[in-house]
Fold this protein.
Amino acid sequence: MRNVIILGSQWGDEGKGKVVDLFSENFDIVARYQGGNNAGHTVFTGGQKFVLKLIPSGILRPGKKAVIGNGMVLDPVALMAEIDALESAGVEVRGSLSISNRAHVLFPAHRMLERLSEGRAGKLSIGTTSRGIGPCYEDKIGRRGMRIADLLDSELFRQQYESAMEEKITLAKAFGIYEELDWHGIRDQYLAVAERIRPMVCDTAMFLNQAIGEGRTVLFEGAQGTMLDVDHGTYPFVTSSSASAGGACTGTGVSPTRIQGVIGVSKAYITRVGSGPFPTEALDGAGEQIRRRGNEFGAVTGRPRRCGWFDAPLLRYTAAINGFDSLVVTKLDVLDEFDNIPVCVGYRRGTEEVAEMPPTARQLEQIEPVYQCAPGWHTSTFGVSSYDELPARAKDYLAFLESWTGVEVGCISTGPERHQTIVRPGSRFARLVCG
Ligand code: GDP
Ligand code: IMO
Ligand code: MG
């Protein structure tokens, strides 16, 4: 058995799409376990750029199976648009993709209700992707959600839809955020899409467990990142799902006893989109330089990403939550031109050292990062594919990250393309992911 989770160790956009696409070659199945089309996973291959939102990044590898797990929230119209776009680019989707009958259905009403918090004066704005993700998960946890299996039962769906939408319309009107929508048109559109996705829908937990039982291997693809996890992230500035390793089990129905490894993906620095505390944010020219060199603009919303320095205490925290076996450090090339590269090695409040990740956003805003500077290497690492060819100072930087995080750096990404990647021979990463 060699089933491995690959997930974000920061606030998302770490380069998971590139990493999962590349290494899905070594697995039979790639399964997404949480989130929805708030995710934007960018993959470059054969001169083409793909941004995957709902479909696992492994879909680009012919012959591999892709799974949309029960932990996801699914806008069927967005899913169909993604399938159509991929198929018109020559990617075979319909024969490769399985969709969980237990994934939750996301409606336009969820996007409307997101304005209850995001769009109203005096309310705490999270700076969401406006895809309706939070309200859809609220319905799931509130036990009033509709699942793909309900959507496929057209008679039942019609009844459930009427009463669910009535509730939402009442709520939206009461809070003054009501927007006229073609409710019946939406219902019919969803029912039409249901027929298109029906052949792909199954009990994916059974599919995965049977495949594992037969000796096939699964790569679990996380969306967002651990600091956006609803339990372990910078609450309330988080997403509404379990992005960390535990989510892979609940979000697919595969037991932890059947998973052999967890890999964290981290940028060589750090970014965040949306609001919330960010201790190492670089608000000076350096932040702008990272944004420009790293092209740090959201893959879903196009918003500029907030940029800052590598935060080792944050990584130690996410390594503990997930039990990382190894790290993939991406976008090393983005740091090529810096004279000095600050790395946060600890947190302080006044004169007091802060040993644990503060649980509240307010406490996190009060801490000060303690930096140590690593010397820059002033040499291009773009596209380097062998560890030995990295400049000595870039190797020192990676060793510095390893020593402060306590996790091996088993893989390094030096550009967006597949071949712009280094796997360190003899690493745990090589054993788990390439073995
Ligand atoms: P994800 O959400 O974690 O899959 O990450 P995104 O796709 O949202 O953002 C990562 C961006 O960085 C994408 O545009 C990738 O093409 C790009 N990228 C990934 N790895 C590297 C790298 O090593 N160097 C550079 N320069 N770009 C990279
Ligand atoms: P990938 O998978 C980065 C952020 C939003 C917002 C917060 C809540 O591409 O790494 P939501 O719409 O989920 O309710 O927004 O989470 N966010 C992400 N940030 N990468 C993502 O996905 C994100 N998905 C959500 O910006 O701060
Ligand atoms: Mg992204």
Residues 8, 11-13, 38-41, 126-129, 131, 133-134, 223-225, 228, 239-240, 273-274, 299 surround 6-O-phosphoryl inosine monophosphate (ligand 2) (CB under 6 Å).
